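Example protein was shown:

_____
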Amino acid sequence: MRRGGDCNFGIICWLINNFFLYFRDERDIQENIWSGICCVVFFFLIVSVLTFPNGPFTRPHPALWRIVFGMSVLYLLALLFLLFQSYSTVYAIMYWIDPNLRNFHIDMDKEYAVNCSDITFARVWSHVDVFAWGHFLGWAFKAILFRHAGLLWAISIMWEITEIAFAHLLPNFKECWWDSLILDVLICNGLGIWCGLKICKALEMREYKWVSIRDISSTTGKIKRAILQFTPVQWTPVRWLDPTSTYMRFFALSQLVVFWQISELNTFFLKHIFEMPPSHPLVIARLCLVGVIVAPSVRQYYTYVTDPYCKRVGTQCWVYGAIMVTESMLCIKNGKELFGQAQVCNVIVWLVIQILVSIGCVYGVVLYHRYFEVRTA
């Protein structure tokens, strides 16, 4: 039955495509290219729905997460294509997508972290802007993904170390000490982590009773049930570490902490090397895409790390790892002039600190689970 439905669905899409193909104006070359790209993307996502494997999530529907997997594969293929292009060709493609990018250039002469001793309420409040809210919401989202306070605080603190290490390459990483420690770590990141973990706790304690929408008589009840379709079927507690954790899990979590830093760095290097404003639709679209890709990727990685019967990492997680590596290669290839100014000592010290702090943090969490939780239980 499902195969017949899939076949009919594919035939309908093919007929719709042919209808627009034969009844559209083809005199505009750019419009033709855009239409062709959109058509390829559309049918690739249709193929994703019909053939790609299900992800770890079932809400609101497994087909949605198959589309997310298809979008991640498309993004990986686009990155691989750009990897073989010259810097000027990549710029030409970006200018073709948005001609306004020609008028934007990174201001390398702008001074950051000046007059740090001038601490007034007005100046501190002026830093509470849209980026501060972005920090808060981003860390709340990360807390819902990781659901472990120790790992989240380790990543938060190490990101500030990362900003210090790469401030000579990315001027906007330069911040006053109170901006970095108080506004970022304690207030924005800290409140985001706290709120995210509180949401997770509430969802874990909630009693889930799912009723078919057909069995609900009232219109209000049907609307409420439709909205609840976008919430999890159930919310199981996450336990990354426990007293019986193996060394493989220990190093897998340390690796996750370091990889997360690299993934965050890619965001800033991409928009700096290819000169895009933070509010550009391409930057926002990438952040949104990476956000939805990370959710099933982290879940698959968690299953791989904690389930002894899981022998290989999930496909979505593997694709996201390939995306992270390809983005880094794209930055290094096209940012030779920028990375030529890199202070090698800073980068080496940063890498050593990342490894030591991630290992130390994970080991500290293991000791906490082994001694403190056992005594309080």
Q: What stands out?
A: The chain has a mean pLDDT of 78.
